[in-house]
Amino acid sequence: MSYYQMNENLSIDYLMKQGIFSETSNLTSREVGDGNLNLVFIVKDTLSGTSVVLKQALPYVRVVGEGWPLSVERTIFEANALEIHNRIVPNLVPKLLHRDDELALIVMEDLSHLELMRYGMMKMEKHPKFAEHISTFLADTLFYTSDMHMSSEEKKRLVAKFINVELCKITEDLVFTDPYYDADRNNINPRLKPYLEEVFWKKTELWLETSKLKYKFLTEAQSLIHGDLHTGSIFAGEEETKIFDAEFAFMGPAAFDVGKIIGNIFINYVSWSGKDEDVEKIQDYRSYLIETVKRLHRLFEKKFIENWKKDAQDISARVEGYRDQFMRNLFIDTIGYCGVVMIRRVHGLAHNIDVDGIENLEKRRDVQVKLLELGEILIMNRHQFNNIEEVTDMLRENIEGAKNL
Amino acid sequence: MSYYQMNENLSIDYLMKQGIFSETSNLTSREVGDGNLNLVFIVKDTLSGTSVVLKQALPYVRVVGEGWPLSVERTIFEANALEIHNRIVPNLVPKLLHRDDELALIVMEDLSHLELMRYGMMKMEKHPKFAEHISTFLADTLFYTSDMHMSSEEKKRLVAKFINVELCKITEDLVFTDPYYDADRNNINPRLKPYLEEVFWKKTELWLETSKLKYKFLTEAQSLIHGDLHTGSIFAGEEETKIFDAEFAFMGPAAFDVGKIIGNIFINYVSWSGKDEDVEKIQDYRSYLIETVKRLHRLFEKKFIENWKKDAQDISARVEGYRDQFMRNLFIDTIGYCGVVMIRRVHGLAHNIDVDGIENLEKRRDVQVKLLELGEILIMNRHQFNNIEEVTDMLRENIEGAKNL
C-alpha cells in the first residue's frame, strides 16, 4: 500500500483493518502531535478503554512546512531502533505493536497517562525514578550495541541498518553548524541578536571545538544512539520512565545521548533565572536537578562498567587500562556535547519551551546569554573536568552563586 | 551464473564469451596468484600480444586452505573500490575492464610488465617516481572520500556500500589482536618465541596503545581507505606506480593507509641488518628509503592540504585551526599504525618476505626483535613526534647509529 496521509478517521479505519482492536470496538481518534516531524494519533476504544498510539511520519518538516521535504523513511529507523530497545530495555520504552514501513507508521503502546518530562519540569515536578531509569537506558543501549559487546560483524550490520542520512544531517546542521554563524534557519530572539553579532559569532575557538565534536558525530560509529534524547523525548511519572521518538537513531558517538539529556536538564536549571517564581522553590528544584544529574551520571558510569565487566566480548576490551581510558574519553565528549546542545537550543531553529516560555524578551535574552556562556565553558573546558560533580559545582556557582541564592 | 572456480582453460572460455578478446584470438592463460585469497590469471592473445588479468576470489583463505572459509563477496568490495579509484586517481590503478559479482571476478588491465614493489625492493631497486605517485594516491583518495569534501549523504552512502565485514575482521584480529598474545594463528620463528614469551607479550602498555588504535579502526569512518596498502599491493617501475588489491577497502581511519605503506618500507629498511650484502650498498639503499618516506609524507601532507584548500565543502572544515588539528591527529595516528603494521608482520599470521627471506633463524630473529622494538617506539611515542623527519631520524639512529654505519 503506497503512502497516504492519515487523519483521525483514517487512523481508525487503518487500525480496524489491521485487527489491532476487536470488531466490536467503538474507536475515537485524536491527533496530539506537537513535534516537528510527525502526526501522532491516540486511538481509543471507548467500550474497553484500551488505547494505542499511531505515529506517522510526514513527508516534510512540520514546523517549517512543505518547503522542507523530508523522506518518511525515518519511521523505518524509529521502528528499527524501537525493536532493539524493546529487546535491550523493554521496560523503558513503549511496546512496539505494529509497523508499516510503506505507510511510514508505527503503532505503539499508549503512554498518555504519563506526562512529557519537559512539561513536568516546567511545573517543578520531580521524577524520583528518573535517574535510576535513564542511567539504565543509557548504560544498556550504549554498551550492548558497541564493539565491546557485539561481534565485529553484528556491529557493522547495525552501522549499515542505521545509515540515517536525513536525520543525521539535521543534527549536523542545526546543532553543530548553524548556531555558530548568522545562518538563515536560525530562530533568534531579536533582543539577543546584538550579543550574537558582537560576541558569540566571533568566538572562533568555540566554533573550532564544536567542529571537532561535529567531526566525531560524523565519523565515530561507537554505539546505537537514540540521537535526540532530550526531555521532550521522555515520558516521566512517579514510577515510570519511557523513552521514545528514536527516529534520529544511528551508530554514533555514545557521549551524544548522555550529553544531550544532561544539557537539557541544565537548560531547565538555568531557565528559572528568567521566571517569576518563589525563590525558595527555585532553590529547592534546582537542588533536585543537580542531584538528578549527579545520580544519573554516577549510575550511568557504574552500570556501564558493570556491563563491561560482565559482558565485554572483545579481548582488547579486557586489556589493562583500556576501560579507564574509554570511560574518560566518554566523559570528556559527554561534557562537550552537553555544552553543544545547550547552545543550539538558544538561537538555532528548534528551541526549548523551558526558555521560550519566558515572555519578556529581555529576561529571555539574559537566560539565553547565560546558556551560551555555560555551553562555552563546558565545551572549552571539557578536558579539565574530572567528574560530574565538578561540572555541577561549576553550574551552581555560576548561576546560584552569582545570584546569592 | 552461480559461482564456479576458474582454472586456466575456463578463464579463456569465460573471456571469449564476454567478448573481451576478438573471435580470432589465440589465448593462453597462466595462473600467477601468490596472495592469500585469490586466483589470478594472466590471459594473453598470442596473435595481437594484448593481455588482461582475471582475478577471482576463492571461498576460503588460500594460505590456510578450505578450513578457513571466506565469502567471495570481497570481490564486490574490490570492484567497488577500483571503480572509485578509477575516477579519482585513474593513472595510479589498473583499469577495470569487466566485473562479474556472481562469479566473484574482475578483469583488469594487465600490468605484468611492472614488478611487484616488494620484490624490487628486495633487489635494492629504486623507484624514482614512487613518492610522487603514492602521495597523490593517498592525498586524493583519502581527501575526496571524506566528510571534508563529500556531502553528508554521499559519505554515508559510501559507509553503507563498504560494510566490509569479513576483511575488516581479518585486520582486527591479525593486525591488532593476535600478535599481542600467544594466539593460535600466529606464525612464530621458533628462535623468537622466548623473546615473545619473556618480553613482548608482557608489554601491557603497548597492548593498550595498540587497542586504542584498534578502536579507531573499528569506529572511525573517515575516508575510503585501501585497507591493505603494503609494498605487495603496488606495482612499481621507473615511470609508473599502480596500486591494486583493494579488497580490504572500507570507510576507516585515513591514517591506516599512510601508516601501513610507511611501515612496510621501514620493514625493508630494517631487514638489511640480517642480510649478507655489501655495507655501502645497504647504506645507499637505506638512504634512498629514508628519503622516499620523507618525500612521500611531505608530499602527501602538501597535496592533502591543497585539496582541502581547493575543495573542502563543509563549512566547519574552514573554521580557523580546524585543518591544522586534523593534520596533526592524522600524523599521530599514522605513526601509530606504522608501528602496528611493523609488529604484525613479525610473528602474526602473514609475514613479509623481506624478513622471512633471511634464512638463518638467529639473524632473522635479531631483525624481528628490532622491528618489534621500533614498532613499540613508534606506537608509544606517537604523540611526541613532531614531523616525519623526527621519525626517520629515530629510525636511522636506532638502526644505523647502533651499527656505526
Automatic annotation (TrEMBL), chains A, B:
Subunit text: Homodimer.
Keyword terms: ATP-binding, Kinase, Nucleotide-binding, Transferase
SUPFAM superfamilies, alphabetized: Protein kinase-like (PK-like) (SSF56112)
Highest taxon, organism lineage: Bacteria
One Pfam family, short name: APH
E.C. no: 2.7.1.100
Nucleotide-binding in keyword set: yes
Residues of the Aminoglycoside phosphotransferase domain: 30-285
Annotated protein name in UniProt: S-methyl-5-thioribose kinase
Record GO terms (molecular function): ATP binding; S-methyl-5-thioribose kinase activity
Protein's GO biological process: methionine biosynthetic process
Organism classification: Bacteria, Bacillati, Bacillota, Clostridia, Peptostreptococcales
Similarity annotation: Belongs to the methylthioribose kinase family.
Protein transport found in the keyword field: no
